[in-house]
Design brief:
It is a single chain. Helices cover 51% and strands 10% of the residues. By secondary structure, the protein is of the alpha/beta class. Helix 9 packs across helix 13 and helix 13 crosses helix 16. The chain is globular.
Length: 384
């Protein structure tokens, strides 16, 4: 496979991770950030990560030096003029990303692929602002890039098929697993995963259980690695709230994605989670103990959130947002769910999950809980 030069704009956590990944695969990488402080931090961070890999014996010292030597750090976009691809990993703002792409198009050759690492913004909209929209694609990596195996590929309506095929080929060579998503809000992972957070918040706001008990329900009953509140604190409540708000607004205020006042209040108070020392939990103190004895309560919480997740996955499959296989791969490899949600529905019984959603819908009388029509199609397909 031809060696290509990769440009990365934005030297934060995601950008430096993508740069390290591409350099490890043998590419010359041009990492650009206008902020010299961020650039210096990225340099130190990548070097530290490579040294750690060498200490663990996962790469040799010579390899660590060679990988680091393939990354060129700069505060000037003009070094990207000969890049074959440019991947942006800057702030989640469509206007700012569009301005960057417009600037890049003045520099790079017409065959250069322009990719966005956005987690939820429209690739169609971004491509529409470009002189050559056919070369624009979404490539959503997951944090931390070195450890998370998944990359979502999001072609715009305007994206040339050759661009998609090229990115699929190279991302596989980089050792990552690919899924293809339609350009819909949140793509696969951030759309389907929304109930893990929003339904947990709803359960808390109804006074059914506290944060610790809801977290414990998900880890103890269904074996999720982290409960929703611990995970939101890990991600950052500002980031999680922004994605939820973006998906809700972009889906024409779909009730299933409605943001929570509880989370908005935490963001307003700058209780953003682990990075500020306080979020749903106060990390300066011992974490509160959950109610571990009430198994009926715990199962009720865990099943309610799981039904909502399954409903979302079934809906995504029914409306063709991604293939069955890619939905399963995205949720197990992108957010480490214990099982693919569509397979989980079959394990529990699709009718059982449908009844669970119908009972919620009947009780609350809200569109938020309407069962996906995909349940009936899944049931019919099983009997063909």
């Amino acid at each position: 496979m031809k060696k290509i030069s990769i440009g990365v704009v934005g030297a934060g956590t995601m950008g430096s991770g993508i740069a390290q990944l591409a350099a490890t695969a043998g590419h010359d990488v041009l990492l650009v950030d206008v902020n010299d402080t961020v650039l210096q931090k990225a340099q130190a961070s990548v070097q530290k990560a490579l040294n750690r890999l060498a200490e663990k014996g996962q790469i040799s010292n010579a390899e660590a030096i060679a990988i680091f030597g393939r990354i060129y750090f700069s505060n000037e976009l003009k070094i990207l003029k000969d890049a074959h691809w440019v991947i942006e990993a800057i702030v989640e703002d469509l206007k700012i990303k569009s301005e960057l792409f417009n600037e890049l198009e003045k520099l790079v050759v017409d065959s250069c692929i322009l990719a966005s690492n956005t987690s939820s913004l429209s690739i169609n909209a971004l491509a529409s602002t470009c002189r050559i929209p056919s070369r624009v694609i979404g490539l959503h990596f997951f944090n931390p890039v070195a450890l998370m195996p998944l990359v979502e590929h999001i072609p715009a309506l305007q994206t040339d098929k050759e661009v998609l095929d090229t990115t699929l080929e190279y991302i596989q060579q980089w050792g990552k697993l690919s899924v293809i998503a339609k350009d819909t809000p949140g793509f696969i992972v951030n759309r389907i995963a929304r109930p893990y957070y929003s339904e947990a918040l709803r359960i808390y706001e109804e006074g059914i259980a506290d944060f610790a008990t809801i977290d414990y329900a998900m880890t103890s009953i269904h074996n999720f690695k982290m409960g929703p509140f611990a995970l939101m604190d890990f991600i950052g409540n500002d980031v999680n709230f922004a994605v939820t708000k973006s998906v809700w607004e972009a889906c024409f205020f779909e009730p299933r994605y409605k943001p929570s006042f509880t989370q908005r209040n935490l963001v307003s108070a700058k209780w953003l989670g682990k990075k500020t020392g306080r979020g749903y939990y106060n990390y300066a103190n011992d974490l509160p103990m959950p109610d571990q004895e009430n198994r009926i309560l715990l199962s009720g919480i865990a099943n309610r959130i799981l039904y909502m997740l399954i409903n979302e996955a079934v809906d995504a499959w029914y409306y063709g947002l991604a293939s069955y296989e890619d939905i399963e791969r995205a949720m197990t490899k992108g957010v480490n769910y214990p099982m693919g949600l569509l397979h989980w529905a079959k394990e529990l019984g699709i009718n059982h999950c449908l009844i669970g959603m119908e009972e919620l819908h009947q009780y609350y009388k809200e569109d938020r809980y309407r069962p996906s029509p995909g349940f009936k199609k899944l049931i019919a397909d099983l009997h063909v």
